[in-house]
Amino acid sequence: MVRTDVKNWLSASVDAVRRDPKRGALNVAYDLYLSCWLFGTSRFPLGTNVFSQDWDLLVVLDACRTDVLREVAHEYDFLEPIDTRWSLGSASMEWMTKTFTKKYESDIERTAYVSANPYTTGVFSHRTVPPSNRRIPIAPTNYGSVDVDTFALLDEVFRYGVDDELGVTPPRTMTDRTIAASREGDYDRIVAHYMQPHEPYIDDEVGLGPHVFERLSNGELDRDEAWESYRGTLRVVLDEVELLLENVDADRVAITADHGEAFGELGFYGHTTGFPHPAVRRVPWVETTATDEGTYDPIVDPQTDADDGEFDVGQHLRDLGYL
Fold it and tell me: Highest taxon of the source (predicted)?
């Protein structure tokens, strides 16, 4: 099924070109490219679906580049060696939509997905497909992704776990919830989707604040400073992954990313749907093991588990720089 609102798109595009010929023309070209990209890859996905790989616990580090992980690998025994895979998407919604599909429904039915990424609501509950923030002339409306009831457990940690000061779900909250799922549940597979090292960066040394890539593209922020904070945030989440691996039992653990991050490659910053550059699409893949040594008891407040209906997913996506 194809959604066609070409007339509205043409009208909006003409207005955009009149207002700003250069930027408007670039947006038109990108919209046309994105239409072709999404239409083609909805039928013939390009990349490795994680469910085709062998793992019991999958740790997803949101927006983690392969090169930055290699820079800190010597600090963590569990990060050697670092292999790579081509991701199915260059943005979280694209990756989720193309990963959790009916082709792997029988696996997903036995999978617990513990997620700090708020796009789970759009993809699995509201059935939104990428991109959520652009009107393009022709795009698929169905990628064959599963719905929210397919999962053995879908723990949307962001609904109750966002730290108001940080503006994001802290990695310790994710560690707590994943350990609890491992010890209390009976799942064949567990996916732990940490929000870090995605911005906002939460390292203690720099503190860059929100909208890092907008400021980088405008020349308001130095790339080296941003990279240092990005790498520092990666260390913060890797410390939590280390704790996680000491407190869950998993013979096969894979550590990867949904996508990477552009730091000026081809003039791009951040990540967007349909961006094929290896900095964003070529993600790390590390295989290790985990043994529950009982060194940590997770803090789990059962009163936070229920969604009270007041959480604004859209606002949280804006806070994270998605919208």
Answer: Archaea
- Which of the 8 DSSP states describes residue 1? -
Length reported for the chain: 323
Q: Tell me how crowded residue 71 is: count the other CB atoms within 10 A of its CB.
A: 14
Q: Which helix (H) or strand (E) holds 68?
A: helix 66-72
The structure tokens 């513990």 sit at 114
| Contacting residues for 303 by C-beta, under 8 A, at least 6 apart | none
Contact 30, 133 (CB under 8 A): no
Say how far apart CA 114 and CA 112 lie, in whole Å. 6
Query: H or E stretch including 140?
Result: strand 138-140
Instruction: Give the separation between CA 157 and CA 19, rounded to whole angstroms.
Output: 42
**H/E stretch holding 190:** strand 189-194
Q: Which tens digit of pLDDT belongs to each residue from 161-181?
A: 999 888 899 999 999 999 999
All domains of the chain, ordered by start, with CATH? Answer: 48-132+143-319 (3.40.720)
> pTM to 2 decimals?
0.89
**CB-count exposure of residue 301 (10 Å: 0-12, 13-18, 19+):** exposed
Which residue intervals of the chain are DSSP H helices?
6-19, 21-43, 66-72, 92-99, 105-108, 119-120, 158-161, 171-184, 212-217, 223-245, 278-281, 313-319
